């Protein structure tokens, strides 16, 4: 039925053979029963998904048990079909499982891309903030140097005027601090 529907199909006679085939090849989908020769189908599903988390699994079984279906779905199976089934049910279940698998892979890829974009932009933002902080420090140093040079220029004309400017600057800083202004504002004053 699956080959007729355009899929490549590989079969295994028991759980060990299925595990060996999974280890040797890349598969998109696994159909398995709850009761399999050589082991539990649920254990096989757990093993298969641990080996390849992108694998789509559909359980096809004669066991019509909602609790067992919930366990299979909880392990990561995409579907749980009860035998006997119609061919259309199988092709729909396989098609849906493969579409879901594709969407989950695409979604994960998109999330990884978004995470990388966020990391890149965060890195760029940190660089920009560092540049701004450096420019702010350079501007502050330049402003202080300009004020000192102006004070020296005034002092060179008159020693008393230069010392007066220094005293007024210190008094202003002291008074601003006593008024409770933050240290940056006091320095600016």
Biggest sheet, spatial arrangement of strands = 1-4-5
Number of strands: 5
Helix and strand content put the structural class at: mainly alpha
| Radius of gyration using CA atoms only | 37 Å
Largest sheet: 3 strands, parallel
Relative strand content: 5-15%
Low-confidence spans: none
Shape: rod-shaped
Q: How far apart are the first and last residues' alpha carbons, in Å? A: 86 Å
Q: What is the ordering of alpha helices and beta strands? A: HEEEHEHEHHH
Provide a count of the helices: 6
Would you tell me the overall average pLDDT? 89
Oligomer: single chain
Helical proportion, percent range: 55-70%
Précis, in short:
With 189 residues, the chain is mostly helical.
Give the arrangement of secondary structure elements.
Layout: H1 15-24, E1 29-32, E2 35-36, E3 39-40, H2 41-51, E4 56-61, H3 66-75, E5 79-82, H4 87-157, H5 159-178, H6 183-188
Parallel strand pairs: 1-4, 4-5
Antiparallel strand pairs: 2-3
Helix pairs in contact: 1-2, 4-5
């Amino acid at each position: 039925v699956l080959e007729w529907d355009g899929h490549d199909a590989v079969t295994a006679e028991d759980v060990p053979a299925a595990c060996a085939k999974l280890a040797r090849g890349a598969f998109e989908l696994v159909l398995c029963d709850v009761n399999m020769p050589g082991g539990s189908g649920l254990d096989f599903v757990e093993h298969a998904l641990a080996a390849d988390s992108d694998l789509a699994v559909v359980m096809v079984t004669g066991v019509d048990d909602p609790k067992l279906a919930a366990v299979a779905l909880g392990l990561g199976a995409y579907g749980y079909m009860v035998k006997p089934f119609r061919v259309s049910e199988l092709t729909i279940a396989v098609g849906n499982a493969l579409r879901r698998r594709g969407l989950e892979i695409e979604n994960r890829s998109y999330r990884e891309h978004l995470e990388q974009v966020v990391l890149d932009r965060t890195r760029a933002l940190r660089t920009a903030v560092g540049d701004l902080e450096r420019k702010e420090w350079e501007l502050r140093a330049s402003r202080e140097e300009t004020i000192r040079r102006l004070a020296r220029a005034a002092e060179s004309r008159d020693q008393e005027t230069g010392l007066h400017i220094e005293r007024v600057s210190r008094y202003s800083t002291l008074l601003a601090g006593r008024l409770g202004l933050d240290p940056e504002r006091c320095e600016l004053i």
